[in-house]
């Protein structure tokens, strides 16, 4: 039997993103939809904390020592960038603390680092957005902390809604999320930001952007975009306003 071994040069060269996720992340399958075929995601998780989603949890899962340890857990597979995939954990203590988290990840050996809230800040600046509507699955206090983070970025929250959930965020239906996004929109809002990496949004972005005529920015979308940009790779998935982000 003739067999052409030259036709088998091995798999497509793999490029990696390290992902540090909170212990309760349940949307790994959504993350993979945001990256091209040659990119692999290498996940590490923060330690379990027996508290509901809240200000307390956000502070516990953003402990810089935990993030440094999780970074070291993924370095052996040589990721090109390490992402802290958590919106609340990266905004809860303000802009300076968010920046300290990327430093902690790099100090632990990552070649580059991003956080979800840092990725949000980048896109708000790149698209020159100063007025947004916000939807979160959190309670009122944690949602207010997001408003404060945005204010530090000179971004006004013109409308806001929150679901008040202490857990099980990944179980919220697309219908509920779409209805609440539409309700959170405001005529003065230049974009809508949907917070939380555990809230499913992938299939909602394109139809809601078409209906509202403005960007619908979501946590997993922005985090993966920030990683791909650092790897000089094109973005994958919905989000037409993000195509021209440089």
What does this entry look like structurally?
This protein has 246 residues and is α/β, with parallel strands linked by helices. It has one domain: Rossmann fold. The chain has ten helices and eight strands. The strands form two sheets. A four-stranded parallel beta sheet has the order 2-1-3-4, sandwiched between helices. Helix 9 links the parallel strand 7 and strand 8. Helix 3 runs parallel beside helix 5 and helix 6 packs across helix 10. The longest helix is centred in the middle third of the chain and has 13 residues. The protein is globular. The protein starts with 14 loop residues before the first strand and ends in a 16-residue tail after the last helix.
Topology:
Layout: E1 15-21, H1 28-33, E2 39-45, H2 55-60, H3 64-74, E3 81-84, H4 87-91, H5 95-107, E4 113-115, H6 116-126, E5 131-136, H7 140-152, E6 156-162, H8 174-184, E7 191-194, H9 205-212, E8 216-218, H10 219-230
Helix pairs in contact: 3-5, 6-10
* Share of residues in helices: 25-40%
Task: Give the second-level CATH assignment, the architecture.
Answer: 3-Layer(aba) Sandwich
Largest sheet: 4 strands, parallel
Mean pLDDT: 95
User: What is the end-to-end distance?
Assistant: 52 Å
Please name the CATH topology: Rossmann fold
Strand order of the largest sheet: 2-1-3-4
Distinct helical segment count: 10
Radius of gyration: 18 Å
Number of strands: 8
When the domains are counted, the total is 1
User: What are the low-pLDDT stretches, counting only 5+ consecutive residues below 50?
Assistant: none
State the CATH class: Alpha Beta
Strand content: 15-25%
Instruction: Give helix and strand order, one letter per element, not per position.
Output: EHEHHEHHEHEHEHEHEH
| Gross geometry | globular
């Amino acid at each position: 039997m003739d067999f052409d071994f030259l036709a088998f040069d091995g798999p497509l060269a793999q490029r990696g993103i390290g992902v540090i996720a909170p212990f309760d992340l349940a949307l790994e399958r959504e993350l993979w939809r945001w990256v091209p075929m040659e990119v692999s995601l290498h996940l590490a998780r923060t330690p379990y904390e027996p508290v509901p989603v809240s200000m307390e949890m956000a502070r516990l899962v953003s402990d810089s020592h935990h993030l440094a340890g999780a970074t070291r857990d993924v370095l052996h597979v040589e990721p090109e960038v390490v992402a802290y995939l958590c919106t609340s954990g990266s905004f809860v203590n303000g802009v300076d603390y968010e920046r300290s988290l990327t430093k902690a990840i790099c100090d632990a050996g990552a070649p580059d680092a991003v956080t979800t809230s840092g990725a949000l800040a980048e896109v708000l600046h790149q698209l020159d957005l100063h007025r947004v509507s916000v939807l979160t699955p959190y309670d009122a206090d944690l949602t207010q902390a997001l408003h404060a983070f945005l204010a530090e970025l000179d971004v006004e929250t013109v409308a806001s809604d929150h679901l008040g959930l202490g857990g099980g965020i990944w179980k919220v239906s697309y219908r509920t999320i779409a209805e609440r996004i539409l309700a959170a929109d405001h005529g003065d809002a230049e974009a809508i930001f949907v917070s939380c990496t555990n809230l499913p949004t992938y299939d909602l972005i394109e139809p809601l952007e078409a209906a509202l005529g403005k960007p619908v920015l979501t946590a997993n979308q922005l985090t993966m975009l920030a990683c791909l940009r650092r790897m000089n790779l094109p973005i994958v998935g919905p989000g037409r306003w993000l195509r021209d982000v440089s």
